[in-house]
Design brief:
Layout lengths: L13 H4 L9 H6 L11 H28 L3 E5 L5 H11 L6 E6 L2 H14 L4 E5 L2 H4 L11 E5 L5 H12 L3 E5 L5 H8 L1 H7 L9 H22 L2 E7 L10 E7 L7 H15 L24
Parallel strand pairs: 1-2, 1-4, 2-3, 4-5
Antiparallel strand pairs: 5-7, 6-7
Helix pairs in contact: 3-4, 8-10, 10-11
The structure holds S-adenosylmethionine (SAM).
The site of S-adenosylmethionine has 19 residues, from strand 2 and helix 7.
């Protein structure tokens, strides 16, 4: 049998395994987050998450820089933080090298909050805090800075994304960066009124079958969220986070608070929002999407 004389394939460098890796990025952090193994190899299980986070960071960094340039400081609240991959990588890449700025992770699971707080201390990430609370309660939590410039919510479960929007509106955040997760609330209301809707409009065929109810419910939820943001003075961009092969929950909603209300955009969005809710037989969701809670001006800051 012929002997294999070819030399063994060289071990790929970290940069080759992870082209997104940036100069100065903490390898210790990536190991602590189990993105890299102790041997410095990329953990394939976390690769997908990492791709999403890196993509999101590309969108968020310019927003942080813009706020920092405008007011000399910048605060970010990450809702439904989980293990805080996003918060940690943002801190490492943006905040660490700057003397100001603060990141607060909001997460209901106390054990994740404790772990993240311990990791932040270990890495010397001093301007990073974690609160074991709900997004809803975070609004009045004394642990949060009174001013929040950027709100993020990456796959915050179900209505936690809506709570993050309500939080951002109340704080008059300059930017919101949202990647919604599964959403059941709207589908539940569509289901409840299905028979009536089918009698009223042939368009109710769009959500007649249970699978369509779920998918259409999810789609319409994001449409309503965008209108809600526009009705409150934000301009909204909807795009894809990463390729569909990486995640099915892939819609990225970017909202920027506008200084003025050009051409009555707020009132128009508010009217559209009400019309869509009425057309789809969802008037009980008016409170959720804040149609009834305020006028066309954004709500006052809650501190
Ligand atoms: C799917 S995980 C996403 C975690 C993280 N953002 C990420 O993308 O890796 C959703 C997280 O949101 C948390 N969560 C769900 N509802 C919440 C709420 N109302 N307030 C705060 N955290 C919530 C869950 O405990 C969970 O850790």
């Amino acid at each position: 049998m012929a002997k294999n004389t070819s030399s063994p394939r060289p071990v790929p460098t970290l940069q080759e395994q992870l082209p997104e890796l940036r100069e100065g990025q903490s390898v210790a952090l990536l190991q602590e987050l189990h993105i890299l193994t102790r041997e410095g190899k990329l953990n394939q299980d976390t690769r997908r998450k990492l791709k999403q986070v890196y993509h999101l960071v590309q969108f968020i960094e310019p927003l942080l820089a813009e706020v920092l340039a405008a007011r000399g400081d910048v605060t970010l609240a990450d809702h439904g933080a989980g293990k805080s991959y996003l918060g940690f990588i943002l801190y490492d890449l943006f905040f660490k090298a700057r003397p100001v700025g603060r990141v607060t992770g909001v997460e209901t699971r106390a054990e994740l909050v404790d772990k993240s707080q311990a990791l932040a201390s270990k890495l010397g990430f001093e301007r990073m805090d974690f609160l074991a609370t709900t997004v809803q309660e975070a609004l009045t939590h004394p642990g949060l800075p009174p001013r929040i410039d950027v709100v993020t919510a990456l796959h915050a479960c179900d209505t936690a994304t809506d709570d993050a929007i309500a939080f951002g509106l109340a704080k008059q955040a300059s930017h919101m960066v949202l990647v919604p997760c599964c959403q059941a609330e709207v589908a539940g209301v569509l289901r409840q009124h299905k028979a009536l809707s089918l009698a009223r409009s042939p368009l109710a065929e769009l959500w007649r079958h249970p699978l369509h109810t779920r998918e259409f419910g999810s789609q319409i939820t994001n449409v309503l969220r965008c209108l809600q943001l526009e009705a409150n003075g934000y301009s909204v961009t909807v795009t894809e986070l990463v390729g569909w092969e990486h995640s099915m929950k892939n819609e990225l909603i970017l909202a920027r608070r506008m200084a003025d209300d050009r051409h009555g955009a707020r009132a128009r969005a508010r009217q559209r929002l009400t019309q869509v809710l009425n057309e789809l037989g969802l008037p009980e969701l008016k409170t959720r999407f804040a149609v009834e809670s305020s006028g066309s001006e954004p709500p006052a800051v809650v501190v």
